[in-house]
Amino acid sequence: MVLVSDLMSAPVYACRPDDTVSSVRNLMLRHRISRVLVMDSGRMSGIITRKDIGYRLRSRDPAWRRRPLDNEPVSSLMTTDILSLSPDTSIHDAMLLMVSHRISGFPVTGQGMVLGIVTKSDILRSPPVQELDLPVQGVMHDVPLVTREHSVDRVIDLMKAGCGKVVVAGHDGMPAGMISESDLTFAHEGRDQPEKIMAGEIMRSPVITLPDTARTGDVVRAMTTDHIS
């Protein structure tokens, strides 16, 4: 049986509660990570993810939530209700928790210490996933479409409904780009008027695609090679 301890990443990247959002965003970019633990006097006090930063772009939120984030302390955005795993948790159970709680990573703790972190990227490397060989048509799902002119509010509303990614359709109806939580995270930089951001400004292009005849192994290899989820 494959355990969390077999796949977790260590050491874990961390910050302090009074570190700025800008410094954490740079940490995420530099190390290609999507979450950073917040440590206070050696204890885990919270976690901040790309989602926590990206969702603050909503222009319908109160004005105090829309002010420029770069100099905001991490403590104002972090999540304090942290679900952690023990190192002897099975990868199967970790996957079930990710689905049921709609989160993509957990700190791994033992004897009061942070031992590592396990994410969807780690699980992609696990034997149960690597050995899958199913038609992609049996596991794929619909993805919401927006146009380049849709507001970032619309994109965030769709993501909050559980889709995770949004495809931006071109005038010909074909995929022109894709927006993920990561794209929202870095859309903050250099902006002080989030209500003016449109989907076409922050989408990532070109879209990496596979034919509907692909199998799950093809998908896993593409995700691993191109660092996408």
What does this structure look like?
- There is one protein chain.
- The longest helix has 12 residues, at 152-163.
- With 229 residues, the protein is an alpha/beta fold.
- It has 10 helices and 8 strands.
Largest sheet: 3 strands, mixed
Which ranges are low-confidence, i.e. pLDDT below 50, for 5 or more consecutive residues?
Answer: none
Mean pLDDT: 87
From the spread of the alpha carbons, the general shape counts as: flat
* N-to-C series of helices and strands: HEHEEHHEEHHEHEEHHH
Strand content: 15-25%
Radius of gyration: 18 Å
Share of residues in helices? 25-40%
Distance N terminus to C terminus? Answer: 25 Å
Number of strand segments: 8
Give me the side-by-side strand order of the main sheet.
1-2-3
Protein structure class: alpha/beta
Q: Helical element count?
A: 10
Descriptive keywords:
229 residues; alpha/beta; three-stranded mixed sheet
Topology, please?
Blueprint: H1 4-7, E1 14-15, H2 21-31, E2 35-40, E3 43-49, H3 50-54, H4 91-101, E4 105-110, E5 113-119, H5 120-124, H6 127-130, E6 145-147, H7 152-163, E7 166-169, E8 175-179, H8 181-187, H9 199-202, H10 216-226
Parallel strand pairs: 1-2, 6-7
Antiparallel strand pairs: 2-3, 4-5, 7-8
